[in-house]
Amino acid sequence: MTDRALVVVRPGMLTTVQDLGRPGYAHLGVPRSGALDPPAAALVNRLAGNGPDAAVLETTLDGCALRPRSTVTVAVGGAPCPVTVGGRPAAWGAPVVVPAGELLEVGAVSAGVRGYLAVRGGIAVEPVLGSRATDLLSGLGPAPLTEGTVLPLGRPAGPAARVDTAPRPGPPAELVLRVTPGPRADWFTARGRYDLTARAYRVSPASNRIGLRTEGPALERAREGELPSEGMVLGAVQVPPDGRPVVFLADHPTTGGYPVIAVVRAPDLPAAAQAPPGTPVRFVPVGRH
């Protein structure tokens, strides 16, 4: 039994292991997966003294609780939340030392959706296709955390950052997604294309790591029926039969048969990971370059 490990005391609503994901395997039907908010995951890794490819924990809404078997340095970021060590308040957004056997509690978020927890040395579960990421769609990677799960840790690669706190954008009050026309925009009427970028939408409670679903006006179709399955990219705005746009996120399927009316610019997707249900969504048209 290694002492370089974390024991899960409270797994939270949904806590998964994530890293940079598995890009490059779409031709095999394997989704990209990886952290939904890559800048937040990268920041906690830097704070903990890890390289950018180290695996972290991604929490959802209510955090998690862990007990290290040896003294570790951690950093919690992403959605703001309280952090305690042994019942005492600890820093969010900065390196924190957790003594062996003490309880590290990552609390419920005060804004946003997803928190990130890095441990110096990284989460060292067995990689699958070069990644330690949990993929909820395909089932690849480690299962979501459950009580009693033991997470092995890697060897430290460098010292923790020397900062009091690190600046980080807050969760969006309004989710602004810049879009370029998709390959099947012509499957929608002029009115349908206009409504996408002119009407108001909200984040649906049915959103998950696969896609951000929206509530709002249905987009009017020019063509009925569905397509043969074709390749899907990260950020694709697919329109299912109910007419409400769905933005594909990290665990999205690699193919799909619903028409893609637009594609969201990649730099706008991390904010989608932190937009709770009810957040206003605005699709903004931009050029193709």
Automatic annotation (TrEMBL):
InterPro entries found in the cross-reference section: CT_A_B, Cyclophilin-like_dom_sf, PxpC
Keyword ATP-binding: yes
Presence of the UniProt keyword ATP-binding in the record: yes
Domain Carboxyltransferase per the UniProt entry, residue ranges: 27-289
Residues in the signal sequence: none
Domain of life of the organism encoding this protein: Bacteria
Keywords: ATP-binding, Hydrolase, Nucleotide-binding
NCBIfam families: urea_amlyse_rel (TIGR00724)
Entry protein name: Biotin-dependent carboxyltransferase family protein
Lineage of the organism: Bacteria, Bacillati, Actinomycetota, Actinomycetes, Kitasatosporales
